[in-house]
Amino acid sequence: MDKRIILLILTTSFVYINCKDSDQKIYEPTIESINYGSIVYASSEVNCKNCHGVDYKGKGPDAKDLDVPVPDLTGVIAPEKTPLDYFKAISVGTEKTKKNGLQYHAYYSLTDKAKWALANYLYSLAQQPKTNEEKKVRQESLAKAMKEVREIYSKNRKWYMGENTPSTEREPSPKLEELIQKTNFKTEQDISVKIPSEKELEAVFVARQKYEEGYHIYQNHCQKCHGIAGEGVQGSQFLGILDHSRYDAIKGIARRKPAFVGIPPISNNVKKEDVIKYHSYYLTEEQWNDLINYIKAITE
Ligand code: HEC
Ligand code: HEC
Fold first, then answer.
1. What pTM value is reported for the model?
2. What is the per-residue pLDDT across 71-100, written as a single tens digit (0 to 9) for each?
3. Strand, helix or coil at 160?
4. Atom 40 (ligand 2): residue with closest C-alpha?
5. Per-residue pLDDT for 289 more than 80?
6. Considering only CA atoms, which residue is closest to atom 31 of ligand 2?
7. Is the CB of 226 under 6 A from ligand 2?
8. Cα of 93 to ligand 1 centre, how many Å?
């Protein structure tokens, strides 16, 4: 046989086997998936049982704080219900799972695999439909839902629902961008911590004797970001969680973001104006003088 034909057969069969192996069927109620669902449910991280209870009957300790009843997941459910309804309820919540306008039932941090495992596991706990009429409705609903599910996963690895858009498509937060643009933070900078030299530590010691108040202000307010000797922080320094009020909740889901930046060394010819350009510190003129003199002394 022509060598090229053998090669072609080899490659096609290889590709075929490969496709089969990597087929995404995370939505199927396999034994592994159901077992995994029970483990995720029980983990305290996601706290499902706080409302749904250890017996799935909806009598968990947090259930009584809600205005709506938590359903008994082991009870009778509508014949139209499918695991897809469960998946959606866990992914984006329902109309009823809101408190003070905030959606608390959208578990964005769970993977699709975990959400399907939960959906299939919890769905398996419900009573089966009894009458033939109900059984027929259930079969049709399942067929319709699973067709939709298969279609989605034939194109995507993850089902983006609600506001859970891929980070690349999300609008960056303007406030955070602004803050980060004010700094000279470059992601390609190495993350490293600079340890002050003997000489720098000596300068700090001497400056402290001379500018006692400046030393205290610097130590209490500036050092955590700008370093012991004004050396700054390379890489990423956690600036804090941006204030809740600065972010509008997106469709009822509050979003808070941490801000990380790199901080360059403070220059030796620092002026009060350089500081207030970035920060709002309310100090007396005397305190400003002492602080600036202290910084000059340690950055020499
Ligand atoms: C703060 C309480 C609370 C927590 C925590 C909670 N749930 Fe619920 N859950 C509810 C309420 C209330 C409903 C009823 C919603 C409705 O009727 O629309 C519900 C409904 C459901 C349903 C049924 C949806 C349907 O279509 O019938 C499923 C499945 C579910 N939750 C799974 C979970 C899972 C999984 C977790 C943990 C990841 C969880 N819940 C955590 C309160 C909670
Ligand atoms: C929460 C962290 C933080 C604290 C606390 C802080 N700074 Fe800053 N500071 C920054 C950041 C971030 C910048 C912007 C750096 C840049 O330009 O990249 C900055 C900028 C500056 C600049 C301007 C640097 C330049 O390149 O011109 C000076 C001077 C300065 N800070 C002094 C101070 C002093 C003095 C204090 C204490 C009174 C203080 N900072 C407290 C984070 C902080």
1. 0.54
2. 999 999 999 999 999 999 999 999 999 988
3. coil
4. 222
5. yes
6. 275
7. yes
8. 8
Distances in Å between the Cα of 33 and the Cα atoms of 18, 110, 116, 140, 185 are 22, 14, 8, 23, 43
The Cα–Cα gap between 231 and 222 comes to 11
CA–CA separation, 48 and 4 (whole Å): 57
Please report, for the chain, the start and end positions of each structural domain, with discontinuous segments joined by +. Answer: 25-155, 174-298
| 275 CA distance to ligand 1 middle (Å) | 50
Q: What's the pLDDT tens digit per position in 210-265?
A: 999 999 999 998 988 888 899 887 656 666 665 554 444 555 555 555 566 677 78
Residue 85 CB–ligand 1 contact under 6 Å: yes
For residue 11, what pLDDT is reported?
Answer: 43
Helix, strand, or coil (residue 37): helix
Region 126-136 average pLDDT: 96
- Measured from the alpha carbon of residue 125, the closest ligand is 1
Architecture of the CATH domain 25-155 = Orthogonal Bundle (1.10)
From CA 121, how far away is CA 38, in angstroms rounded? 6
Question: In terms of residues, how long is the chain?
Answer: 300
Q: What does residue 102 show for φ and ψ, rounded to 5 degrees?
A: -105, 135
